[in-house]
Input
Amino acid sequence: MANTKITSRVIADDAVTTAAIADDAVGADQLASSAVVTASIVDDAITSAKIADNPAFSGTGSITLPAGTTAQRPASPANGMIRYNSTESSMESYVSGKWKIMDTTAYPIPTDFLVIAGGGGGGGNSVGPGGGGAGGYRSSYNSETSGGGGSSESIINLTSGVQYTVTIGAGGAAGTSNGSGATGTNSSFSGTGITTITSLGGGGGGGNIAGYAGGSGGGGGYTAAGGAGTSNQGYAGGQGLYHGNSHYGGGGGGGAGVVGGNAVKNGSTGNSADNHSGNGGNGVASTITGSSVTRGGGGGGGERVTNSLCIPGLGGAGGGGNGGPTSGATAGVSGTANTGGGGGAASSQTTTLGGAGGSGVVILRLATALYTGTTTGSPTVTTNGDDTILTFNSSGSYTA
Output
């Protein structure tokens, strides 16, 4: 008789019992997909004795373990039991006769950073004032260099639920008559579980003295040396120079990528267009936001005499301000905001002010899948590929 002659309708209820089926007569390959469902299994029909040792589960989903309160723990626990304790909101296991919390530490959140401090202010009108140094520059992204020729830093790992503090350094105030520019203030990123990342403010440009040290050093005024930069953050400022005939040029402020330029005398007389103050050092380019942007330029040095033919220094690429013109009463140019650029020095004796330093910036980049969206300080939030980028132009926080 063909198999098709026997159907479920001609088999009496309960005619086929477990005892009537030979061991291993029905294999898994003979059961239609989804033929055996939970509703078809008698309560307690599957016991540990009927499950093979070391069972393996296929698929890519998960297994839900038993869950209950502390009071609902098994009355006779055995070593090796695991469950979710809803009272403690934690996984627990029974080990050596005691219930113990299982380690469920969250995965680390790899995060790249760019931290730039405020730039130094340019020197005020004096005997060849110096330009302000750029704010310290520290980077971890894409093997791009930090300031001062430093290597790219290591990525940081944030911890889920921790609030991290972002501090944006202000640019240093401009120098006034015979005064040096102020050093910029530090920028930082800090929080539990990481080493605080601090970039130092750029050194102020010297009035009639040496430039101040900083993330990048300020340019020297008069004939003085530029201030020192900080290792792995920025370069030193340039030196001031006497051109002759009462004409002086200040040194350029150090940049994150290049030393500030020294003042130069190429002319046969002190009052010559071939003489010029030092240019600010260039900054460093970063692609952390998805496009290449240069930041951390030093400020240009200034000249002494009104209507001098000598040329004031130019600001370095990356937000450095130009030295002020020798004619009129125009101040030195301020560093660009949120680049850490140094301020340009004053030139004409009819003005007193240099340019202020540019404020700093902190930029974070992490996988969009791990981004929480919990911030303060109103950072600009963009995406690039699979990553989210937070650009903090003012102080705030991020909660991972």
Observations:
- The mean pLDDT is 92.
- The chain has two domains: 63-104, 105-400.
- DSSP finds no helices and 19 strands in the chain.
